[in-house]
Design a protein that fits this description.
Its EC number is 4.3.3.7. The protein is built from 12 helices and 8 strands.
């Protein structure tokens, strides 16, 4: 059986887009973050992405972002990679965050397309290059046009692939054709940022995933990749399909993944805390439904 060409994943295969735990009064809960990080790594995560979309980066301060990296690094040591979200609509601010994350102990940087201002592609490219030039850390492009309003077009990605520190993409573009065009022509590591696409992207040569749903079921998502790597492709497909009801409940039911992940984590007695405004917590009925989907997935022997 021929397997796709796969680059060595720079941050591991199984990454979790970790929530940022807060205290009941809304402060940063570093103890909770350390407990959650330790659990995630113990359950199979190769890496943790901090201060991304799921980590509520728009509502955490620069100081909190750096403190979170330091605390999680202390908790996981060298057992897992840490990728710090540093993307903002402001190139200068993103550079500042990149340098702070490097100093705090991150292994890599997650940089989202500048949002709201909707820059043209040449400006998008210049934004990423300036951040990549400013730090010694490898950089992950975060392509999520549904939130930013601006795509990283495949041709732009191909040009950026020539930069020595731009090594990966977290993909939420829903452009499977464009992904494969870039995969075929570069050595960029592509991580599925949409949980329903984990196996599909991995099967065509992707590096793995950066998953929100893995906050609650890290072992079950890792098992999809493990089965595929073992040649058990039918089993990998079964595992992916079994996860879909929980994925749909958490990611496609009208609430942001941060809200559903924190609601379910809290019900499971795991560190999470409230979301910060403008987000609002999930109601009891929603969390009941999430718990039911979680139990259905995790009850299988």
């Amino acid at each position: 059986m021929t397997t796709p060409v796969r680059v060595i994943p720079p941050f591991g295969r199984a990454l979790c887009a970790m929530v940022t735990p807060f205290t009941e009064v809304g402060g940063l809960d570093l103890d909770g973050a350390q407990q959650l990080a330790d659990r995630l790594v113990g359950e199979g995560c190769d890496g943790l992405v901090l201060s991304g979309t799921t980590g509520e980066s728009p509502t955490t301060t620069d100081t909190e972002k750096a403190a979170l990296v330091r605390a999680v690094r202390e908790a996981v040591g060298g057992r897992a990679s840490i990728v710090a979200g540093v993307g903002t609509p402001d190139t200068r601010h993103s550079v500042e965050l990149a340098l702070a994350a490097e100093k705090a102990g991150a292994d890599g940087l997650l940089v989202v397309t500048p949002y709201y201002s909707r820059p043209p592609q040449e400006a998008v490219e210049a934004h990423f290059r300036e951040i990549a030039d400013a730090s010694a850390l490898p950089l992950v492009l975060y392509d999520i046009p549904g939130r930013t309003g601006t795509r990283i077009e495949p041709e732009t990605t191909l040009r950026l692939a020539g930069h020595p520190r731009i090594v990966a993409v977290k993909d939420c573009s829903y452009d499977f054709l464009g992904i494969q065009k870039v995969l075929a022509r570069t050595e960029l590591a592509y991580y599925a940022g949409c949980d329903e696409q984990v196996l599909a992207l991995y099967a065509v040569g992707g590096a793995g995933y950066v998953s929100t749903v893995a906050n609650v079921v890290p072992r079950q998502f890792r098992a999809i990749l493990d089965a595929f790597d073992a040649g058990a492709t039918t089993e990998a497909a079964r595992l992916q399909q079994r996860a879909i009801p929980l994925v749909e409940s958490m990611m496609a039911a009208g609430l942001p993944g941060t809200v559903t992940a924190k609601g379910l984590l809290a019900r499971l007695g795991l560190p999470s805390g409230p979301v910060r405004p403008p987000l609002r917590p999930a109601d009891r009925e929603t969390v009941d439904g999430l718990l039911s989907a979680y139990q259905d997935l995790t009850s299988e022997k």
